[in-house]
């Protein structure tokens, strides 16, 4: 199954950008929206990662276009602190942006503090469900379910019975990706050999923002014998994909349909598929709820059953592997039907 994720535009990195769909004081076409626009603060790696952050940006772009409102997206800085994030979100809220969205769990403390100071502004945070407030939507996902499908695909596609997993940072969120992947692979080949590696212990060390680290890790796993490698490493995953293509083994992307990303076009023949997380859809849905005057709040979770996660099948080579496709489709049905419960650890 392919989740109907919002297509990513080709983007570069910069400090911020401002939409031009409407003036700062203009309401949406419905006349109900009175905010200045959408405020979006990026996670580590920033815009241009062709994955997590760019998916959020695509959601902002779709909302701007459909609702006729502006948006401002702001880049993170190297070595920044929670205080820097608090200042960033505060500036967006003070300027009148609504909703204000922190892309990534690292914004948890900042969203909690700033949302309390601006009770009439809706805040969103992606990948964190600990910020409990009436004006906050905690947008989270069953990443392990999409990763299970990636594991099934990897095990079926591997010719050596030897696959790999590369996580950006050794944290509970990425453990979910690994757990689902391993469980899915072993459901197909119980004794399959799996290389597993985390690039860094903390986000500040560059685990999500260092393609060179991803490249080196992939090189090591390929040398060890892996012929399919799944990454959950943000921008670092570009290094995994480029090295996999260079060594002519399969890579599996994450969050966005990386087969269709322009920056990866030279390597797409070796992208078997991608474990999807509909971050763009979550951003769009939150903006729509605010525009409609019925802002979302509390935990909003994406799963296979509501198209919040899935597995991309854009590569024609993947589609031609009918046994792989059939196995992934069966695994998806079993999860949705409750026959399979996917591990998160």
What order do the helices and strands come in, and which of them pair?
Layout: E1 16-18, E2 37-41, H1 52-67, E3 71-74, H2 82-94, E4 97-103, H3 108-117, E5 123-126, E6 136-141, H4 143-157, E7 162-169, H5 172-188, E8 193-200, H6 211-224, E9 228-232, H7 237-246, E10 250-255, E11 271-277, H8 279-291, E12 298-302, E13 309-312, H9 316-320, H10 322-336
Parallel strand pairs: 2-3, 2-4, 4-5, 5-6, 6-12, 7-8, 7-9, 9-10, 10-11
Antiparallel strand pairs: 1-3, 11-13
Helix pairs in contact: 1-8, 2-3, 4-5, 4-10, 6-7
General description of the model:
There is one protein chain. By secondary structure, this protein is of the alpha/beta class. It folds into 2 domains: 16-141 and 279-306, 3-Layer(aba) Sandwich (Rossmann fold), CATH 3.40.50; 143-277 and 315-336, Rossmann fold (3-Layer(aba) Sandwich), CATH 3.40.50.2300. The chain is built from 10 helices and 13 strands. The protein has helices spanning 52-67, 82-94, 108-117, 143-157, 172-188, 211-224, 237-246, 279-291, 316-320, 322-336; strands at residues 16-18, 37-41, 71-74, 97-103, 123-126, 136-141, 162-169, 193-200, 228-232, 250-255, 271-277, 298-302, 309-312. A 7-stranded mixed β-sheet has the order 1-3-2-4-5-6-12, sandwiched between helices. It has a 6-stranded mixed β-sheet with strand order 8-7-9-10-11-13, with helices on both faces. Helix 2 (82-94) runs parallel beside helix 3 and helix 4 (143-157) packs antiparallel against helix 10. The two termini are 24 Å apart. The relative contact order is 0.17.
